[in-house]
Amino acid sequence: MLGYYNSLSAEVYDLDKPVGSSFGDVEFYMERLASCKGRILEPAAGTGRLLVPLLEKGFQVDGFDVSSDMLAICRENCRKRGLAANLFKAEMETFSVDEKYGAIVIPTGTFLLLHEREKSLQALKNFHHHLAAGGKLIVDVFLPSELELDRPSIRKWDTENGDVITIESQIVEVDPIKQYRISQARYEKWRNGKLIQTELERYPLRWYGVEEFRMILEHIGFEQIVISTDYKFGEYPNRSGQTITFEATANKKG
């Protein structure tokens, strides 16, 4: 099985989505977290695009990721800014720490990388377990607008030292019954016209219906669920491709 977010893709992520870059989510999350009491956890923290601005605003934030390469860049991004962060390698469905968090945040649909239903449900249960009473889960999901197989797309990035990184990606599998798609991407790094590094990676993506996801959260024990769209609080979605944010409070009664 091919992995994802190895060294080249982590480098591209930091180039394409540098610390502080926002789709409207950084500002939205800061507003929603303003009243948070206690520490915040960001699963799949990546290279620190959201985590670093939260730390700079004085929030107490821990983060983890499945990718050692992403964490290495995140640590360096924190170090360059004089920030101390508790970062560790872990998986959403199995991480275990002693802390009970005031909030757990997962922006930009990263949660959907857990394309196997049981693992995604276990992750949500794990989040609920690690939240303090009244703690909030804030998670972005979306309904994919592109499901066409074998239509490649190509992008490129120029690095500071003059190298060029290209990525060719395409959807290679779609299962509408189990609600997931699989994309495959080939990363290549070029220097003076010569290929010096390449990676082949696999990216799964699951999707949930809006009301399906609400009912799953309720079943796990979340309450006071608010659905927002494209970072407009309380606005219900009306088409695929929109970013859908669920904000839910952990019910710790009994």
From TrEMBL:
GO molecular function term, any single one: methyltransferase activity
Domain Methyltransferase, first and last residues per copy: 40-135
InterPro entries, per database record: Methyltransf_25, SAM-dependent_MTases_sf
Keywords attached to this entry: Methyltransferase, Transferase
Region forming the signal peptide: none
Pfam family membership, one: Methyltransf_25
GO annotation, biological process: methylation
Protein's name according to its UniProt entry: Methyltransferase family protein
Source species of the chain: Planomicrobium soli
Organism lineage string: Bacteria, Bacillati, Bacillota, Bacilli, Bacillales
